[in-house]
């Protein structure tokens, strides 16, 4: 079993595609976070729902993806950039686990906003973890970009 876990939330499949690309190069186990209430697939409606949740600090219940993380040494955590913040399902995951002694590597997809506050939000929830520099992707990425990033952060490929 791989000691690398790749956890992500993705509404429109962009973050999922990035998670799959990272898994291809790391051999990491993929785990999708699925909230108990799905967001609207209409972009404008989803934006309203998310903005409200973020402003209230709401963390949805996860019906999948929240299993124990004890067996993993390295955890990649992926989210879309929603209003400069992690998606609420990712925040739920972060708040429900102990990351002491783990290596955390964030990644996000965005439409031009980069990481926003996501890296800071993850660091705030993972105070006992080692946090390596993440990658933020606007649009599609290539295998070469992922490999270059993994090499730059010192991730040992399997």
UniProtKB/TrEMBL annotation:
InterPro entries hit by this protein: Flavodoxin/NO_synth (IPR008254), Flavoprotein-like_sf (IPR029039)
Organism the protein comes from: bioreactor metagenome
Pfam families the UniProt entry points to: Flavodoxin_4
Record domain Flavodoxin-like: where: 4-152
Name listed for the protein in its UniProt record: Flavodoxin-like domain-containing protein
PANTHER family given in the database record: EXPORTED PROTEIN-RELATED, FLAVODOXIN-LIKE DOMAIN-CONTAINING PROTEIN
UniProt signal peptide: none
Molecular-function GO terms, alphabetical: FMN binding
